[in-house]
Description:
- With 252 residues, this protein is of the alpha/beta class.
- 40% of the residues lie in helices and 14% in strands.
- α2 (32-48) runs parallel beside α4 and α7 runs parallel beside α8.
Amino acid sequence: MPLILERKKVLDIYNEAGQKRWVIPTFNSENLTTTEAILSAALEYSIRINKPDLPVTIGITNQYSHRSQSVYYTHTRKWDIGLKLFLADLAVLTGKGSPFEKLNVMIHLDHTQWDSDRPLLEWDMNLFSMIMYDASALSFEDNIRLTAAFIEKHGHEIVVEGACDEIVDATGDTRSDLTTPEQAIKYLNETKADFIVANLGTEHRASAADLKYHGDMARAISKLTGTKLVLHGTSSVGNDQVKNLLMMALPR
Ligand SMILES: [Zn+2]
């Protein structure tokens, strides 16, 4: 299948996953080798479970201070060149005649910064399946206001994931508090985001010393929001927990 970019098709795949109690993984890439490794693993798994159109999402960050993956994509160290090549690689790898042509592959722009990524936000959003609009370095109220404005403008073109917490200093050890269910539902209602990323104690925000996935908080949030939660920093969650991620995040 060619890339799944159309908003409705992307939402259909995520809705189906929610109904079937699946979690769709997003793996970020910053070079062709990683992109191919992700697709190879997805293909192998699709054969094992006999689901040729297995959904998988491949992400990339842009001007994100922790890691600017589009910049690292080429030796030009130019984000726009990197991003165009990332898209071109994916188009070829999911196109006709590729071993990966039957997979349902989606493209995610990760941690897109409301300020430094302004030039990227001017691009055609139909080139991507979804975007994380990240204004979490601002106050919670400003974050909501800017995310709502972005969704108002582009929400019909692309699936939008919002960052539902407030960080004091994204570059240092200072981290945000865990997202509360009240914050999550307020954020969701006021921004109209399709999905929300909550701070649940994973590597997304916490530093290595105090990583802990707060499944209890995920359940409390899902109780109010339904299956809208996106978990970041999942590589810091133990294998046993990852296996049951969605069941753990659902209200008991
Ligand atoms: Zn994150």
